[in-house]
Amino acid sequence: MAERATKPEKKRVRRTPEEAKALILSAALELFAEHGPDAVGLKEVAGQAGVSHGLVTHYFGTYEALVEAAFQEHVDRAQAATLGRIDELIEGGPRAWVALAAAHLSDPTYGRLVVWALLSGRLGADDFITHRAQGLRRLLDAIEGRFRGVDRSKLEFAVILVMSASLGYSLARKALWGSLGAEAGCDAHANARSTDSERDAWFREQLSDVVVRLLKRR
Predict the structure, then answer these.
(1) For 24-62, what is each residue's pLDDT tens digit?
(2) Structure-derived torsion over alpha carbons of residues 20, 21, 27, 33, reported in degrees to the nearest 10
(3) Distance between CA atoms of 12 and 34, rounded to whole angstroms?
(4) Residue 117, class by beta-carbon neighbours within 10 Å (0-12 exposed, 13-18 middle, 19+ buried)?
(5) Residue 8, CA distances (Å) to 5, 12, 15, 46 in order
(6) 3, containing H or E segment
(7) Which of 128, 143, 162, 193 is most deeply buried (CB count within 10 A of its CB)?
(8) Could you give the CA distance from residue 41 to residue 44 in angstroms, rounded to a whole number?
(9) Rounded CA gap, 153 and 2, in Å?
């Protein structure tokens, strides 16, 4: 009687702890971008990463800790990209800041993570990642010397204004434009902006003008 062929065992991939954590965080961010943190859990993240549920728990403990670590990873990537373009941002001034903020904050991953942080109460906590990373302070430190004669407090307000307006707009623009009506988004030189992209561009232009005037004011 012929012996039954045995199925070869799948070779186990050996990873360092850093590699395993990075794999899990990338998998979590992929799921959060599509579904949001509240729609998935540790089991789904483990499946997406191709690792055991126990390994995810070993490295991150609770699901909330995993979500916050993924949030930190997403923010770190954005900060690294921003600081890597610092010369471009300084040269472009407020208009470049608004464009970059709009691009980052309109990312579905960021929006869903912010909503999770807000609803979970973590967004206002003293030990939340924004307090630890202080990305905006690092950005201001990098650009402050190029804006001679402008108070640090005015730069701080300008950056907060850009971030607040861009985040609020990215989360609620459909509802806001709908509440204003079909003719909203007009100026003296244009007809009604009926497409999302035209209205988004108009909003960024107006916000940029406000920041430019703010920084020019003495």
Answers:
(1) 999 999 999 999 999 999 999 999 999 999 999 999 999
(2) -170
(3) 29
(4) buried
(5) 9, 12, 21, 24
(6) none
(7) 162
(8) 5
(9) 83
Which pLDDT belongs to residue 138? Answer: 86
Are 93 and 157 in contact, with CB atoms under 8 Å apart? no
d(C-alpha 32, C-alpha 28), whole Å? 6
* Amino acid occupying residue 157: F
Tell me which residue has tokens 């973590």: 122
| CA 28 – CA 36 distance, rounded (Å) | 10
Q: What is the pLDDT of residues 105-162, one digit of tens each?
A: 888 898 899 989 999 888 888 888 888 888 888 888 888 877 777 889 999 999 999 9
pLDDT at residue 7, rounded to an integer: 46
Mean pLDDT of 81-86: 87
Q: What's the predicted TM-score (pTM) here?
A: 0.77
Amino acid at 189: H
Q: How far apart (Å, rounded) are the C-alpha atoms in residues 29 and 67?
A: 9
Q: Which two tokens stand for residue 202?
A: 């108009």
Distance CA 184, CA 202 (A): 11
Token output for 191: 């007809």
Asked if 38 and 116 touch (Cβ cutoff 8 Å), the reply is yes
